[in-house]
Design brief:
Largest sheet of chain B: none
CATH superfamily of chain B: MetI-like
CATH superfamily of chain A: MetI-like
CATH architecture of chain B: Orthogonal Bundle
Helix content of chain B: over 70%
Radius of gyration of chain B: 21 Å
CATH topology of chain A: MetI-like fold
Strand content of chain A: under 5%
Largest interface: A-B, 39 and 38 residues
CATH class of chain B: Mainly Alpha
Oligomer: heterodimer
Number of domains of chain A: 1
CATH class of chain A: Mainly Alpha
Order of helices and strands of chain B: HHHHHHHH
Helix content of chain A: over 70%
Shape of chain B: flat
Largest sheet of chain A: none
Number of helices of chain A: 11
Distance between the termini of chain A: 69 Å
Order of helices and strands of chain A: HHHHHHHHHHH
Number of strands of chain A: 0
Radius of gyration of chain A: 23 Å
Strand content of chain B: under 5%
Shape of chain A: flat
Distance between the termini of chain B: 54 Å
Number of strands of chain B: 0
CATH topology of chain B: MetI-like fold
Chain lengths: 246, 230
């Protein structure tokens, strides 16, 4: 194997890396922003509120991300009004495939995140809600101060999986001509016909990002779940203190 | 609308390919998963190490990267072997169906392995010991006792993997297998109405997942016969 084409074109990989990072980051941020109200709606007992969100998550979780991206990019992007819109100077950015991918990814991750948050909200111990109500908090205050903070904490392990899933899912952006990490590898492969070098090097990059993210989430979990850590350490310390005092 | 009905059989034919890709790769994944789980639970350090590397690599790398690597890399490898070892000079095309099912099976084998490992650990050792006490061989205990007993614990995991796997098969359209996503692209291109055809395919995927969920519920009930709950 000869990795010189990869090394010579490393700036292409860096450019791809930057695109992947931007794509995943913004999809996650927008998805998160959508998911919070959706999750609250999804826990509503009123079918008129709950139903549409259920349909949304059912559709986006039940169909492949690739098909969703095609629906947005080829389907929406080639509709007459979109073509006309993208020809206007203010909307020229709509000719770039990046925005379609970002839109599809956002909706996809919003659907998954909604269901994760829904589970976390439903897992709130009811006593906490009752206590908040007894303190005279309004519904909004209860959500803001009690339910959501503890729900986010409980959702963290599942959410970290969703982040990894989005990172891996974002590789399909290369199918619609976006030069993300995998897009860079595909260019190298078609230019030099070196599939092993191109795809193995990009696989290693994805691998490193994945495990860096997993490590980061572990740190966060340790911080947020500090109160749930096994007590042995602290009790052991206390015992030695007691014995010293005695 | 007429055009859609004309092309519907074409798409539906593609959906059969999607289903067969899913079934074949699921079979590959289950076999690989059983091997991985036994390797992880074995006493051999080497087997444990290989299985560990396998599951870690799969979890770290996107499926499309692996698929392209196996498709393009496999093509190169097959042609190299054919030329160097057998002196075969014609160009061999790697079948997209085979490359696709092998890749998806290979990916989901890792996830199935984790599922099976957990499920095997949930089977009481006493049941296996009872099997040995009856004079069954290791294979007999494995197939007659371990697999039926662990299935109940493994089914929810297998179900989740199956649902994700089915959606992953859409990726084989990228390497040119004419399953339904690929066909929707063709039909959408020639009618200039891609939205309609991709929507049809999306709804077909929804149908498949919905039917699968029903089937899985039935299977879970079937394998939990005899388990009493409060």
């Amino acid at each position: 194997m000869d990795f010189t084409p990869v090394i010579d074109n490393f700036d292409l990989y860096l450019e791809g890396l930057w695109t992947t990072v931007r794509l995943v980051f913004f999809a996650l941020v927008f998805g998160f922003v959508l998911a919070v109200p959706f999750a609250i709606m999804r826990t509503s007992k009123n079918p008129a509120v709950n139903g549409p969100v259920w349909a949304f998550t059912y559709f986006f979780r039940g169909t492949p991300l690739l098909v969703q991206m095609f629906l947005v990019y080829y389907g929406l992007g080639q509709m007459q009004f979109m073509i006309e819109l993208s020809q206007q100077p203010a909307f020229e950015f709509l000719q770039d495939a990046y925005w379609y991918a970002l839109f599809a990814f956002t909706l996809n991750t919003a659907a998954y995140t909604t269901e994760i948050f829904r589970g976390a909200i439903l897992g709130t111990p009811y006593g906490e809600v009752e206590a908040a109500r007894a303190c005279g908090m309004s519904k909004v205050q209860i959500y803001r101060r009690v339910i959501l903070p503890s729900a986010f904490r409980r959702a963290l392990p599942a959410y970290s999986n969703e982040v990894i899933f989005m990172l891996h899912g974002s590789a399909i952006a290369s199918v619609i001509t976006i030069v993300d990490l995998l897009g860079a590898a595909r260019i190298i492969n078609s230019r030099y016909f070196t599939p092993y070098e191109a795809f193995i090097s990009v696989g290693v990059l994805y691998f490193c990002i994945t495990f860096a993210l997993i490590g980061g989430f572990k740190l966060l979990e340790n911080r947020w779940f500090a109160h749930l850590r096994p007590r042995e350490e602290t009790t052991a310390k206390r015992k030695t203190k007691v014995s010293q005092a005695a | 609308m007429d055009e859609l009905f004309q092309r519907l059989p074409f798409i539906l034919e593609g959906s059969l390919i999607t289903i067969s890709v899913s079934l074949v790769s699921a079979a590959v994944a289950i076999v690989l998963g059983l091997i991985t789980a036994t390797a992880k639970l074995s006493r051999s350090r080497l087997a444990k190490g290989i299985a560990g590397v396998y599951t870690t690599v799969i979890r770290g790398v996107p499926d499309l990267v692996l698929m392209l690597l196996i498709f393009f890399g496999g093509q190169l490898l097959v042609n190299y072997i054919a030329l160097e070892w057998f002196g075969y000079e014609d160009y061999i095309d790697v079948n997209a169906f085979i490359a696709g099912t092998l890749t998806i099976g290979f990916i989901f084998g890792a996830y199935m392995g984790e599922t099976f490992r957990g499920a095997i650990l949930a089977v009481p050792v006493g049941l296996l010991e009872a099997g040995y006490a009856y004079g069954m061989s290791r294979q007999q205990v494995f197939f007659r006792i371990l697999i039926p007993q662990m299935m109940r614990h493994a089914l929810p995991g297998i179900g989740n993997n199956w649902l994700v796997l089915m959606k992953t098969t859409a990726l084989v359209a990228v390497i040119g297998l004419n399953e339904m996503v690929f066909r929707a692209g063709q039909a959408g291109g020639s009618t200039r109405e891609p939205f309609v055809y991709y929507l049809v395919v999306a709804l077909l995927f929804l149908l498949f997942t919905t039917v699968s969920i029903w089937g899985l519920r039935w299977a879970e009930k079937r394998y939990s016969v005899g388990v009493r709950t409060a």
